[in-house]
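Lesson 9: reading folded outputs for more than one chain in a single document. The general rule is that every protein is listed as its sequence immediately followed by its structure tokens, and records are never interleaved. Here is the first one.
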Amino acid sequence: MSTDRRKFLKHLGTSVLLTSASLTSLAAKEENEVRILRDQKRVSPNDKIRIATIGMGIMGFNDTNAALSVPGVEMVAACDLYKGRLERAKEVYGKDLFTTMDHRAILERKDIDAVIVATSDNWHSQISIDAMRKGKAVYSEKPMVHKISQGLEEIRVQKETKAVFQVGSQRVSSIAYRKAKEMYESGVIGKINSIEASFNRQSALGAWQYTIPTDGDIQNVDWARYQANADVKHDFDPNRFFRWRNYREYGTGVAGDLFVHLLSGIHFITGSKGPKSIYSIGDLDYWKDGRNVPDVMSAVIHYGETKEHPAFQVTLRVNFISGEGDHGTTRIVGSEGVIDLGGEGEAFTIHQNKMPQAPGIGGWDSLFTYTESEQKKLMDDYNKRWTKAQQETPQFAPITYRAPDGYNASKDHFANFMDAIRTGKPVVEDAVFGFRAAAPALACNDSYFQNKVINWDAENMKIIG
């Protein structure tokens, strides 16, 4: 076993579960390994945290359930602009649950320690700011802002109030991403030069054509409050309320909803503060249901050299009508290997590839175009200069790191949030980190709709020019 291989296997925090698995590469000489990452076990706390959720849609219910999986957390109130979801909240969390259609009634309650903001994107920033000023800890769904112009003000309020504030891109709390960061920093893939990340989907639900209730009408929806902060007001439309992700007025499209997840993970692993330039293209290819955002979108993003990392480029892609089916990946490519992350933070695989010391001769080369005598002269000289070992390409088996069965990164993300409330320790994804991921994602929308390159000052978090 090579010295480099031994160094690689010395990293702690995992246990080897499977060996001798067959390899896809016929050239590989070493056994493949799958390692199960160790899940952190937390001690049950004595002090109780009382929470309320504002926005009881898909993420509202899922976030609430993840929060309640943390010991010592109690759900006491819920807010939504559709009456049916408030009734459902009582069915799930108890008939004594306080419910309201006005988020301000939640914030006035003295018995609430923290709020989950899981509304449509257009309300994330304002409700979070209101909550922090009322002394509440805030868990804000991503993206933390609907517009780039909102970011610095939200950061300012967080610093001013010193409120605990965490953004909900759960993969940054994943044990798989933490291990991937460790391995990246160890230099196992050499010098980073590019990243490819994508989400593919192939279903109506995956493309945000969510089920609309039969009573989802103007009598049961507070439509005026929903679009109170919109620049352009529309007549009531159940699609715009229950499928808000499809509309720029309330959502942020595939860039704000999904690119931001990819960028959060990339920034966490590489330690980056953000890119220098962003350019995106897209189309409304298939889901022509009234939405005004693309269903296929690609972006090319350039990260300049900084003290945190060398220069590298990122390509992002979302395809809502992909023949590949539902699939997502992030591939961090270095000069000597690739970290391949799949799913939502449950696993990753390291593939190492190194060039031989010798530059190579023959094969797809100009050698055969020379005379036989010249070929012999060149080959003799090459073999004198380079030993057989130096001419061979090093072989490495892939190693997969996987979270244990049943692991859920969202639960760890909420556990980190609750720990910050109880102990005062820093959150995993604060307002600055959250905005540095959200802004380049939203800049992809600006680039698409304005058809231009967006230049970004990552240090000062502002658009240049």
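And here is the second record, again sequence then tokens.
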Amino acid sequence: MTITKNTDPSAPLLSVEDLNVRFPTEDGLVHAVRGVDYTLRSGEVLGIVGESGSGKSVTSLAVMGLLPASARVSGSVKYRGQELLGQGDRAMSRVRGKGVSMIFQDPMTSLDPVYRVGYQIEETLRVHDSKLSSKAAQARAADLLGMVGIPNAAERVRSYPHEFSGGMRQRVVIAIAMANQPDVIIADEPTTALDVTVQAQILEVLQTALSETGAAMVLITHDLGVVAGIADRVLVMYAGRPVEIGGVEDIYYQPRMPYTLGLLGSLPRLDSSTKQRLTPIKGSPPSVVNMPPGCPFAPRCPLHVAECDVAEPDLVEVGGGHTAACIRIDEVRKAGGEAAAVFDEAADDRLLGSEQPADLAAAAGTADAGAPGDPVGERTDPTPQAGTGSLLDATTTPSTTTDGDRR
């Protein structure tokens, strides 16, 4: 079957149904992905979030057909109505880069260190367009580097990956991903290894890529703050399976799964008018080898009851297009999106402001006072602005500069 022909224009760009991935190991069968379902339509951005080990990256690699031969993959992955699972590497090569492209987490391992970045972009272009001349490919490579914000792009196409900073290397990887105007871009934690300023710049570059190509995007991350300003829908994964799916506002304002509520409560809030404790999720994710029955989040859940250990809950409708896998949805609803109403604060985070011990408070006061006349001692904290209490309101994106990309 030829993948890129006879596609169904009315079908979703990408449709994943009951995707399961298992890896045989000496300890047993690792069920890394368990029944993932999602549909991606034109122009849509889907955020997939969860802790490390929740199956996010394995899901994306299964879609791209990049898992090792030992992996046992079942279910369905359709691109424009045509099945991708079970296709050979030659057939998948027609889809990778042209139909579905991927931005990997580590740009240094994504780029070949012995080839100039311009050559690597040109290679991507000419694989899918054999009629493209060398001169035209070089010009297109320079244009792409300029689109992603690399200064002096016409000269930097001759640079090697080690001559770029981490942020600039990630821009090159994004340029390669958008080179052939793909229908879908899968971004696997594209900002994880970057500092906060460069993260914001890379997110702007991703939005540029979407506007230039018209592509839909699957944005994989462990940071809910990253997807707040860019995603349309959010899929929360835990222990290899989706535990909550909904519109971005539903997930941030009205979470219905304790795990989602805990993820939101464990992030620092810049929009709060008062000092607030973080509410971490205690414990660690379960092993996905021979998992016991019941909810996999039960050992860490503050709302755990005996019934949670009987069977793993299914995703149930809790609103228009909003589903959650929990039998205690009503109790989560009563929390009103406030994680502190369900989770306990961390033991190391109990002391804030005036609650500090006297000796620490005195030491802090001495350090802040400074010498007489020292302007440091006259500092005043800016008055925090009151927000609506949502992480969405706290997410802002600074303007794009190249300062954060200095080597």
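What the second record shows: The longest strand covers residues 28-40.
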